[in-house]
């Protein structure tokens, strides 16, 4: 499910997007997958792109033959090399987690960001408003 426009700090927007995709998936039996993953894919750099043109896709993993319709689309994340950092965060701490990767980890590494979408991957439901999230940033050697 794609959203175009501002999203930073808009917990209500994210809650609505997640509710819509989960409702769609639940009615098709897709929530029962043993290896289900939920993802938020960021297609644009919010420091560069116009806020009104920012694109985000709220996703779940699905079998390849899954049929989509309406406002639900299907996409495949390109393979390659990613730095994956696990965080335990509250909703207001996501920006700090992303900033740590770009301001601390990447400058100290032998990598630079690659030109593919970044994403957050959730392997379980939030508990007590705490999210366990893998932040995945595509990288390439310098």
UniProtKB/TrEMBL annotation:
Pfam families: GyrI-like. Residues 1-140 form the AraC effector-binding domain. It comes from the Bacteria. SMART domains: AraC_E_bind. InterPro entries: AraC_E-bd (IPR010499), GyrI-like (IPR029442), Reg_factor_effector_dom_sf (IPR011256), SmbC-like (IPR050908). This is GyrI-like domain-containing protein. It comes from Carboxylicivirga marina.
């Amino acid at each position: 499910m794609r959203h175009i426009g501002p999203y930073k700090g808009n917990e209500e927007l994210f809650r609505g997007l997640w509710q819509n995709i989960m409702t769609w998936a639940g009615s098709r039996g897709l929530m029962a997958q043993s290896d289900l993953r939920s993802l938020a894919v960021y297609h644009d750099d919010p420091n560069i792109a116009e806020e009104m043109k920012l694109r985000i896709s709220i996703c779940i993993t699905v079998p390849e033959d899954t049929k989509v319709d309406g406002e639900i689309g299907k996409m495949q994340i390109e393979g390659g090399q990613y730095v994956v950092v696990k965080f335990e965060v509250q909703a207001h701490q996501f920006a700090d987690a992303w900033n740590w990767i770009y301001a601390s980890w990447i400058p100290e590494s032998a990598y630079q960001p690659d030109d593919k979408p970044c994403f957050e991957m959730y392997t379980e439901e939030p508990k007590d408003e705490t999210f366990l999230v893998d932040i995945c940033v595509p990288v390439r050697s310098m």
